[in-house]
Every structure is written in C-alpha cells, then in structure tokens.
Amino acid sequence: MAWTAALLLGACATPQQLAETQARGDRELAKMLAGRVAGKPENCIPTGFIDGPQVVGDSLIYRQTGKRLWRTQVRDRCPFLRDDQIVVSILYGAQVCRNDRFRLVDRGAPIASADCTFGEFVPYDKVG
C-alpha cells in the first residue's frame, strides 16, 4: 500500500517541475550534440555496433562505434518518457526501425508503460 502511494506521488509533477525537467533534458541534448552535424534521417539502424538507447530529454540516443550518434524523437507518441527509465524493445532481426514498439520501465517498479514507437533515426556525426 505504501509502495503504491509513493509511486502515485512520484508520478505527479507540477507544471514547473515538468518545465524544469524538459529544460534540463534540452541542455543535456544540446551538450551531447554539440560539434556534430545532423545527417539524412533513416528508417532503420543496425543494432550490431550501437549502444543504448539512452533517454535524453524528449529523445532516445544510440551511440555507434566511432563518431556517430543516432537520435530518435518519440515524445508525441510516448508522453511519459523520462531520463531515469529503462527502454525495453523487442527486436525483429538485426536492426531497430521507425514504428517498432518499445515500453518504458521505471527503475525499481516492475510495471511497464503502454507501447511507444520509435520515430525516424537521425545520424549526428562529429565534425573534423
């Protein structure tokens, strides 16, 4: 019972808290993408040499070996995206694609969110 109450209280956030969280995510994303140039969006990315995803602001970031990051935005389809969540996706083959589904799991809580979907994957390469 106490666990449920704590979970419900943790899920309630004021508009100011939500704005602060969004601003923090925007700053973190800007820092992560600084010195990088966006490329042409792709529908799928290979999973063989990527690490992630990491939730940053309203995006999911995959790190590829070398100088490339992949960013996909999912906020409109997944309104409860937070940087402290675990992304659980089901892969069909050796790539992750736009419109593939995933769920979010809060750390310490076994309940997953409803299905969310990936957007297009935009590559960001380091300049120089």
Describe what this molecule looks like in 3D.
With 128 residues, this protein is an alpha+beta fold. It has one domain (2-126). It is 23% helix and 36% strand. It is built from two helices and ten strands. It has helices at residues 2-11, 15-33; strands at residues 36-38, 44-46, 50-56, 59-64, 68-73, 85-89, 95-97, 101-106, 116-117, 122-126. The strands form three sheets. Strands 1-10-5-4-3 form a five-stranded antiparallel beta sheet. A three-stranded antiparallel beta sheet has the order 6-8-9, with no helix packed on it. The protein is globular, with a radius of gyration of 16 Å. The chain starts with a helix and ends with a strand. Mean pLDDT is 82; it is low at 1-10.
- How large is the count of helical segments? 2
Characterize the overall form.
globular
Question: Would you identify the regions where 5 or more consecutive residues have pLDDT less than 50?
Answer: 1-10
Radius of gyration, in angstroms, nearest whole number: 16 Å
The description of the largest β-sheet is: 5 strands, antiparallel
Quick synopsis:
The chain has helices at 2-11, 15-33, and strands spanning 36-38, 44-46, 50-56, 59-64, 68-73, 85-89, 95-97, 101-106, 116-117, 122-126. With 128 residues, it is of the alpha+beta class. The strands form three sheets. Strands 1-10-5-4-3 form a five-stranded antiparallel beta sheet. It has a three-stranded antiparallel beta sheet with strand order 6-8-9, with no helix packed on it.
